[in-house]
Request: fold
Amino acid sequence: MSIVVVGSVAFDTVETPYGKVEDALGGAATYFSVAASYFCPVKVVAVVGDDFDDEHIELLERHGVETSGIERAAGKTFRWGGEYSLNLNERTTTFTHLNVFETFNPKLPESFRQTPFVFLANIDPELQMSVLEQVEDPELVACDTMNFWIEGKADRLEELLQEVDVLVINDDEARQLSGSYNLVEAATKIRDMGPSALVIKRGEHGALAFFGEEMFSAPGFPLEKVADPTGAGDSFAGGFFGYLARSEEQGAAALRRAVVAGSVMASFCVEEFSLGGLMDLAEERIAHRYRAFQLLTDFGDL
Ligand code: AMP
Reply:
């Protein structure tokens, strides 16, 4: 089954203790699409400016991503800047320039309107809602957001959450959205807002998922080299939702495996700057890391 995703396609300026990139390809929808493309067909809805090179579109297409939903508008592409602390656990946003996203009015190509899986990656909740309204009777709707929108568009986000099945956010966002520091309490409050399932991303500490009466925890993969955590959350979401779309199951066992598939894609993402770690991955490398995850936490019976 295929996924339609809306979110930012961006140029990022990022500084970590291991280097710096300026105007490198980034954006939530970009990371999501490439990560999910290893599991299922992906169609992307976004806007870029007239400064966006064809080589980036070609990169997406090389990964099988359908790009006819990327509109090219007059003006500059969305730009974001971030700086990381020495231990890479804290990030400061240095700037957010919405640029062409400020006036974007997404119109889905006809061929996108019957896509069964919808992922609303991080962008203005009004744009997320507009895309959702254009998809006919979707089977599963998942969504991400961030502090920028929790603070700036709380009402619209609240409306959107009522239409969403699975919310995928990080721990700070879960605390901010719920007003609870305790993540289990936060999960209960957030699931009362609409989503029946919640996945909380916890950076190097992995991910915690809540669905039905169950909780599931996956570790972050211990890596020798972490160059740049940017896009890890979106890559996680791509692996997670891509796996669900491919497996066509949404039971507890499939959700557990999806969380690990997400963790696998996030672990590749952080090894390089920009999209570097996600490029042209062989199927065996993905399967091998999935197996390494299994071994990491398989402690057998007592
Ligand atoms: P992550 O590291 O997974 O939180 O995602 C980082 C990506 O999100 C970067 O590539 C940014 O371009 C993008 N991004 C940052 N701020 C925003 C925002 N306010 N809206 C949409 N995308 C954003």
